[in-house]
Design a protein that fits this description.
The complex is a heterodimer. Chain A is mostly helical. Chain A contains 19 helices and two strands. In chain A, a hairpin with a 2-residue loop joins strand 1 and strand 2. The radius of gyration of chain A is 24 Å and the shape is globular. Chain B is of the alpha+beta class. The radius of gyration of chain B is 28 Å and the shape is elongated. The N terminus of chain B is likely disordered. Classes of the chains: A mainly alpha, B alpha+beta. The interface between A and B is large, with 120 and 105 residues.
């Protein structure tokens, strides 16, 4: 072991602010993601307020937001900014930061028996690069014209032409700059993940003995490294189009605000290709860690080995690889060659196969189990249910012929809130309850946790499942007032119901925040291995110091899923336990 | 450990979870009988058939898997004297559900590809041709007139009097006429829409006709279909195009062929009189 990690207590700044310790950095990411989730969640509440009771006057909100809700009625341009920023903040600054940067940093070194990440300085730099990104993104609400308003996908010309919509002024520029900071940070993180997992595994820990959480983070690191640069490139080209007079995404003949633009030669389809080349792997960057948490938590509280470990690893790898070949399914009706559309159908439905394998393996893990219904387990079980729902609706959208009708409707909104947002959110929550003792040496309150779970699970279905009906009935996404259309007017009661569920869902998260911060100081003191789990992070002292283990690093003797092993007295045999019972004799 | 020493409270959570999942399945499936696709009004019924095939397959999968999940949660909740099963691998089962899933998906892909190539096949002859131009936040529909040729367009000519920038020097443009937010078509005759955008991306959406096609500035994109029902329909924009996206609404009127011919003549006369 290296002496560099065994230093004396440090100053407040080097310990809590510019810390090199992966656990502190992980916690910093989590707190940042939680803060951003509050912002993104409040935006969602405003979106639902408008859709629940379109055009209603709310004088109090008018005085809080004099521009966006002048005289208490939401303006259409503010509504567009709201869903643009809700999507951006949630996808990148919450669902990527919490499960990947947060729990990835917290867990990888402890699960592989390392003292820290391979590049601790880079790790610290990565966090402090994402912070300005987050600040810039939030600041964009306060500039002239308001925050970006071209959707989280930022399709040009809307995002490229400043006169196209108020949010396309300063707001869109700040959006791009904020995203560039985010991507730079995320790329550093991905590099760190891959190098750390490949090089710093402790003695006895082969790749096929890694917990599925770490396997997922490994593939996510590779996905991030290979896909994000496409968006960096796209973002910089878009910045040039906006401010330097280039025409990467702008063809000739665009006539906006009574003016003919001088651009020529570009095409907005290029942006869609660049965006979705990142955008689709990004979906799996969010989902894979959640699937990893789900697998590990299911095994622990089922007191059963995860079923089909090897096929789970293959499935994660297959999903990661295929995720680079499916981006065109976001563009079936974009005007892209219909022949390409046919290719992307095939690759897209192929990705359903490893996804189905994962579900069947989870179900088989539950078979013959002895389930302990702790809060993290309830969230993990919910992930399985949400994933089944969201995965199946993906078959509709992945089939190009059916996508014609459903594309850009609420069916899509329902689909990705189940599969991506659902997995990401429930994954992060499950992980928070499960690994809280590793973070703060205390347990979160189970009572509050269960109340939080039940409100969250039921209202999550209540909020997002009815969106399928809206989409099938033809309600488009991103519309400020569906009642403009006669054929959508009968759907208003569904929208109002969704809004009420969404408000409860939002309010229920306050319980979590209270539990999190209360337990940090007042929670029950945790034992070293409170859940009787097998993975290596539970062998560290409580709470683990800088360097994770006192003395030598642990040696690994087995895979992480020896629960209820026959011939062994205990119902679980941790990875750091030398051969016991029958094993030792053979 | 202490937290897990009360089997009674655990089984309550398990029972609640199983009941919740079963309840969700029941309620969510029931409402599919209340809300469905808008009534079909075009020849694109094949897309609906495939939709219902997928709805059937995924519906069965949804019900079976969720009910099984609920059942396992209830059955295998920790109880005194229970033993966990160590069995965790079955090559046969892994191959089984890989091949099984693929076997269900392959026909869906095949049918989908066939329908897709039908949608994008060359339009039948004798089709009505209309140019649809999207702009913030309206639809302009241009008919080519008796010569069947659209006059040339030059964006630099766009003005309040000449919304589409049609070039008056092109003889083909003399008999063209256009309408804002109004599309008129004859029933049971193929129609080819030539879609282009003056500014942003838009998406031309006819919910009852199963027609949705994006408009891209700089591109001319074609789509064709056959309206099969008379009546008035709403045209929607399905791609975010600005702050007025939600009100970019048009109307489609589908007429008897005779009425349509009369309407064309009237419009041409009105255009010639201008």
């Amino acid at each position: 072991m290296s002496d560099a990690h065994d230093h004396e207590p440090q100053s407040f700044i080097s310990r809590y602010v510019f810390s090199f310790d992966h656990k502190t950095i992980g916690k910093q990411y989590l707190i940042l993601a939680m803060t951003m989730a509050v912002v993104g969640g409040l935006l969602a509440m405003l979106i639902r307020l408008q859709l629940g009771w379109p055009g209603t006057q709310w004088p109090i909100l008018g005085s809080i937001m004099p521009t966006g809700m002048a005289s208490g009625v939401m303006t259409p341009e503010f509504y567009v900014s709201l869903f643009t920023m809700h999507g951006t903040i949630m996808v990148f600054f919450v669902l990527s930061l919490a499960p990947v940067s947060g729990f990835g940093n917290l867990l990888i070194p402890m699960q592989i028996g390392a003292r820290d990440m391979a590049f601790p300085f880079l790790n610290m730099l990565s966090f402090w690069t994402v912070v300005p990104g987050a600040i810039i993104i939030i600041a964009s609400f306060f500039v002239t014209g308001g925050a970006a308003a071209a959707g989280w996908t930022a399709y040009p010309p809307l995002s490229a032409v400043q006169s196209a919509i108020p949010g396309s002024q300063m707001g869109q520029t700040l959006w791009i700059i904020g995203m560039v900071f985010f991507i730079a940070a995320f790329t550093m993180g991905g590099l760190n993940f891959v190098v750390t997992i490949l090089n710093l595994r402790t003695k006895g820990l082969s790749m096929m003995r890694l917990p599925l959480t770490t396997w997922a983070q490994f593939v996510v690191g590779i996905l991030g490294l290979l896909s994000f640069p496409a968006l960096t490139a796209g973002g910089i080209l878009l910045l040039f189009d906006r401010h330097a007079g280039t025409s990467f995404f702008l063809p000739s003949g665009i006539y906006v605000a009574d003016q003919l633009l001088p651009n020529q030669g570009g095409t907005p389809l290029l942006w869609q290709h660049l965006f979705w080349f990142l955008g689709h792997p990004e979906v799996y960057i969010i989902m894979l860690p959640a699937m990893g948490f789900c697998s590990d938590i299911l095994a622990t509280f089922s007191r059963r080995p995860i079923f089909g470990y090897r096929s789970m690893v293959y499935a994660i790898t297959a999903i990661g690889t295929l995720s680079f070949l499916v981006w065109g399914h976001h563009m079936f009706i974009s005007g892209m060659s219909p022949f390409l559309g046919s290719v992307f159908v095939t690759t897209t439905l192929a990705i359903a196969i490893p996804s189905a394998v994962k579900v069947f393996n989870w179900l088989s893990t539950l078979w013959g189990a002895r389930i302990r219904f702790t809060t993290p387990m309830l969230f993990a079980l919910a992930i399985v249910s949400l994933f089944v729902t969201g995965g199946l609706t993906g078959i509709f959208l992945g089939t190009n012929a059916v996508d014609i009708q459903l594309h850009d409707t609420y069916f899509v909104v329902a689909h990705f809130h189940f599969i991506m947002a659902g997995a990401g959110l429930f994954g992060a929550l499950a992980a928070s309850y499960y690994w809280f003792p590793k973070m703060y040496g205390r347990m979160m309150s189970e009572k509050l946790g269960k109340v939080h779970f039940w409100f969250t699970f039921l209202t999550y279905y209540g909020t997002f499942f009815p969106m399928h009906y809206l989409g099938i009935s033809g309600m488009m996404r991103r519309i400020y007032d569906p009642n403009v259309y006669q054929y959508l007017q009968p759907l208003q009661p569904v929208n109002t119901f969704i809004t009420i569920c969404a408000f409860i869902l939002g309010a229920a998260q306050i319980i979590f925040v209270i539990n999190f911060f209360w337990s940090m100081f007042k929670g029950k003191k945790a034992e070293a291995n409170p859940w009787e789990s097998n993975t290596l992070e539970w062998s560290t002292p409580v709470p683990p110091g800088h360097g994770n283990w006192k003395g030598d690093l642990p040696t690994v003797y087995r895979w992480p899923y020896d629960y209820s092993k026959p011939g062994v007295k205990e119902d679980h045999v941790p990875q750091w336990t030398a051969p016991v019972g029958v094993e030792a004799k053979s | 450990m202490e937290a897990n020493s009360a089997p009674h409270s655990r089984s309550v959570q398990g029972l609640m979870m199983a009941a919740a999942i079963w309840g969700i399945v029941f309620v969510s499936v029931a409402f599919f009988f209340k809300w469905g696709m808008p009534e079909l009004a075009s020849n694109r019924g094949g897309l609906d058939s495939l939709y219902y095939v997928i709805l059937g397959i995924t519906g069965v999968a949804y019900i079976v898997v969720q009910l099984l999940l609920g059942f396992y949660i209830w059955k295998y909740s920790d109880r005194p004297g229970a033993e966990g099963v160590y069995w965790h691998d079955s090559h046969k089962m892994e191959v089984g559900w890989t091949v099984g899933t693929a076997a269900i998906l392959i026909p869906i892909v095949m049918i989908g590809l066939r329908l897709w190539s039908g949608v994008f096949s060359p339009p039948p002859p004798n089709a009505v041709e209309v140019e649809v131009v999207g702009a913030q936040f309206q639809w302009d529909m241009r008919y080519p007139g008796p010569d069947g040729v659209f006059g040339r367009v030059r964006p630099e000519l766009i003005s309040l009097e000449n919304l589409l920038g049609v070039d008056p020097d092109d003889p083909a443009s003399a008999d063209d006429f256009s309408l804002t937010n109004q599309l008129v078509l004859p029933v049971d005759r193929p129609v080819v829409l030539h879609l282009r955008s003056k500014d942003m991306q838009h998406s031309f959406f006819l919910p009852q006709h199963r027609v949705k096609q994006d408009l891209q500035p700089g591109m001319n994109i074609q789509t064709w279909f056959i309206p099969t029902e008379l009546g008035e329909y709403e045209i929607a924009c399905a791609e975010l195009c600005g702050l007025g996206h939600y009100r970019m609404r048009g109307f489609l009127t589908v007429m008897e062929p005779d009425a349509f011919e009369n309407w064309l003549v009237e419009q041409q006369q009105a255009a010639a009189g201008r």
